[in-house]
Design brief:
CATH topology: Na+/H+ antiporter like fold
Helix content: over 70%
Shape: globular
Structural class: mainly alpha
Number of domains: 1
CATH architecture: Up-down Bundle
Number of strands: 0
Largest sheet: none
């Protein structure tokens, strides 16, 4: 059984759902957000744009079969048979059907799949699903956002692709720049700090256009590679983040997530059970 299951259960047991020893708070929420930032930044650094581009067709197909089709069926069932209106059906179905990037990424990391084609395919599909889910729910709740969020997402992704291509074309100059900084006193600390600050800035930009900072951290990380920092320095960065995540950020994030769990009422529990079974059954067989 994955370790994250135990971490979530620890939060559920100690939280309001069962023993009520620990209450969720703003401090815990802040720690959780910081933890998730570092988890996803590491996943982005481990991923590469090459593998994403090579498998984009398969990733879109996986998104269609594992997310879009199950969600459409859940919306239909919710609206026609579970007495929910269209907006409720859409938002609830997407909330249940969208894959969790935090859980998926940690499972891929723990099973050493981040360097495998299958792992990158799954990760790309999760990213696509999250972007679709965020855009659709935001537009559903406020139709005016279609003129802000959708163009913002497209423009920002285009900028990320352009930056990646520019870095690769000038890889020797970029690596030379970081090598000179690395040779300075405390140069390694300066570079690591710059990576984190840069990733925070990209995450902030994603938040400003209405998209979760999590995707910002991922796309910031994906721009960091051996081509940018060099193999030695990039390896040190990944090992440092991996140790921080394994020893602190991953356990604390999922434990706090467990604190947020609440027991739903009987009526909602029936609806939730039906939709979860539909999502698992359809998404798992297509």
């Amino acid at each position: 059984m994955p370790a994250i299951v135990g971490e979530i259960l620890a939060g559920v047991i100690l939280g309001p759902a069962i023993l009520n020893y620990i209450q969720p708070s703003a401090i815990f929420s802040s720690i959780s957000e910081i933890s998730l930032f570092f988890i996803i930044l590491y996943i982005g650094i481990e991923a590469t744009t090459d593998t994403f581009r090579a498998g984009i067709g398969k990733s879109i197909l996986l998104t269609l079969t594992s997310f879009i089709i199950p969600v459409l069926i859940m919306i239909y069932v919710s609206f026609m048979f579970l007495n929910l209106d269209l907006v409720q059906s859409l938002v609830l179905s997407i909330a249940i059907g969208v894959p969790s990037i935090s859980i998926i990424s940690v499972l891929l990391k723990d099973n050493n799949m981040l360097k495998m084609n299958a792992g990158n395919l799954i990760l790309a599909s999760v990213i696509i699903s999250d972007i679709i889910a965020l855009a659709v729910t935001s537009i559903t709740l406020d139709t005016k956002k279609i003129y802000i969020e959708v163009p913002g997402i497209i423009i920002f992704l285009a900028i990320v692709v352009a930056i990646d291509r520019t870095i690769r074309k000038n890889s020797q100059k970029v690596m030379g720049f970081f090598d000179r900084i690395h040779a300075m006193d405390r140069g390694e600390k300066i570079i690591f700090g710059a990576v984190i600050v840069g990733a925070l800035f990209v995450s902030l930009l994603f938040e400003l256009i209405g998209v979760t900072y999590v995707l910002g951290a991922f796309f910031a990380g994906i721009l960091i590679s051996d081509v940018v920092l060099g193999e030695d320095l990039n390896g040190k960065l990944k090992r440092t983040l991996s140790r921080l995540n394994d020893s602190f950020f991953i356990p604390i994030y999922f434990s706090i997530a467990g604190l947020e769990v609440s027991i739903p009422g009987e009526g909602y529990l029936k609806i939730l059970s039906v939709l979860v079974l539909l999502s698992a059954g359809i998404g798992g067989t297509l």
